[in-house]
Request: fold
Amino acid sequence: MVERLLIALLTGGHVLLEGVPGLAKTLAVRTLAETVRTTFHRIQFTPDLLPADVVGTQVFDQATGRFSVKRGPIFANIILADEINRAPAKVQAALLEAMQEKQVTLGGQTFPLTEPFLVLATQNPIEQEGTYPLPEAQVDRFMMKLRVTYPTRAEEKEIVRRMSAGAAIDIVPVTTPEEILAARAEIAGLHVEERVMDYMVDLVLATRDPAAAGLPDLQPLIEYGASPRATIALAQASRAHAFLRGRAFVTPDDVKAIAPDVLRHRVVLSFEAEAEEVSSDDLVRRVLARIAAP
Reply:
């Protein structure tokens, strides 16, 4: 999870974290934000939240007789959207422009968001009362969807050792927005061989038309495959994965490592898949296993 959050920071892609309560999703995002000398806002999404509570609104100034813009918490470099699926459709729609266009429109005026801009959202897979499923258009805006699982026994023991005393853990900023943007420019220049690029495209096309890719048994299980945005995200994330390992080129192993996180939320299951209790993770694993890597 930590490495995937770093990849998001180094590519400008948004991340959706899914896991049961108590797995430190919020703590992880807040800690990441504190390691960067930048602005950070946490927004707790609730059913009564309004778009103005997120993006801001216009306020009438009686002294001047004019409207002034009061900016919302979306105006920060790193945004933690906590329990994003608890917000109604209007709030979800307000996020779309910010996430995709990196700008916010208030009262006819457009305000660009300061780079780096990153939305890290959390959602709870259980306790669905009072929640609103994210629309497919918004889910597609997230570069990666991460499933946060329970820690191992050794990890849980370490958690108890560190956290049960109640003492604050010091977090020291280690980088700046300028350094992050410089790293992004370097990552964008990493070499991707033609065969590796073909491999990325083949993986995404196999989720759209499995039969044409030689996977006819998967055809009835997939309602809709991944969009071209998935191919772009796969290339960007693979470059960042290679960058974190000190390489100036992308290998098929980079693509394989990052593909489940990029594709799992973009593959829409058919009714037959749901009836057979086949998950999108299962389908992505089967595609990766059967599409030959260069």
In short: The first strand starts at residue 14 and ends at 18. The mean pLDDT is 88. The chain has two domains: 2-161, 189-290. Residues 189-290 form a domain with the Helicase, Ruva Protein; domain 3 fold (CATH 1.10.8.80).
